[in-house]
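Q: I have 184 residues here and want to know how they pack in 3D. Can you give me a structure?
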Amino acid sequence: MQPQYGYPGQPMPGQYPPMPGYGAAPMPGAPMPMGAPMPGAPMPMGAPMPGAPMPMGAPMPGAPMPMGAPMPGAPMPMGAPMPGAPMPMGAPMGAPMPMGAPMGAPMMGLNPVDDARRLRDAMRGIGTRDSVLIDIIGHRTREQRLMIVAEYRRTIGRDLLKDLESETSGNYRTILLKLMKPRD
């Protein structure tokens, strides 16, 4: 019997440790487990690597699929939201995502007064919270953005275009100002 080094199951000095998920090579002539790939065979496209952790929310292999769930690898229908995609701004929690609605499409529940206040809050004080500007301006139609400009002047008493011009710079300023103006 050879002397044991370190913890049980550790490799002998000069040997590589076993890789997680990869067992020892099958004995010659031993039957392969059901569903196991042949040694040296390429992995099918999209198949997880043996021993790799499962992604969050992924079904366990062999588990039954929930009723109405798409088959793994099946193409998504046109206009269907991606699983885990964010809900549109202004949509109540649990509300269905509008099917096929492109970014900036009119959505129910938008409030130009609330948008004007959020934009002002994002530009108030030192610095600008650009994520708020992008979230609001980038997810509204031209008509909705023009309503926000009017509400900003009415409720805040300031010119939104002048505030955006003084709070931003460069190409970022240029695109924000072009988005907020009526068509030429």
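Q: Anything worth noting?
A: Residues 22 and 50 are 7 Å apart (CA to CA). The radius of gyration is 28 Å.
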